[in-house]
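Hey L., structure's done. Input below.
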Amino acid sequence: MIEHQPEPRWTAVEEYLSGLVGHAVEAALEAGMPPIEVAPNAGKLLKLLVQLSGARRVLEIGTLAGFSTLWMAQGLPDGGRITTCEYVPRHAEVARSNLDRAGLGHLVEIRVGPALDTLPALEGEDGGPFDFVFIDADKENNARYLDWAIRLGRPGTTVVMDNVVWEGAVLDPGRDAVNAPGIVAALQMMGTDPRLDATVIQTVGSKGWDGFALALVR
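Output:
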């Protein structure tokens, strides 16, 4: 039986794991990637998932400062592109600055405004389906974002949704009446929607107790 360790041990293990991919982390920091948002080892996972899926077109819902965007951009093949949706104009400005400073700005298009307004516009454009979708925005609309990920994807599209455990609030949504119900709705959709095959991985570390969902569009 594994003995449960105090929370600070989670952070120590995360630092150790991040150190194992230290060369990539150092290179990313030198390229202008700010040490915020997803932890470096989680960012590296996104990069690897983009590569493993063979994705050429990536959709991100929730840009913030562009840290996860930068990681995914590093995993793109020649000719690959990312379209990322950000609600807050200031966040989009910071992300654009970070992307340009890292020399990856030419790979990324930032759509500013509510994602539920910008996503329908993508459906009407002739760019082909997205191969990989990363959802990390307001949790209230997670299920609606997930539906758009399916509609804008294709059979075989990989979907990753972050922050799906939320310190265990999924077991008691009343602990966070704003975010938890949306997370639960998306998880229920992943478990019942015949268009998806999905699983959830719990995580602990400097970001606390959380997890991510990984799904495949059928």
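DSSP finds eight helices and seven strands in the chain. The mean pLDDT is 88.

-- N.
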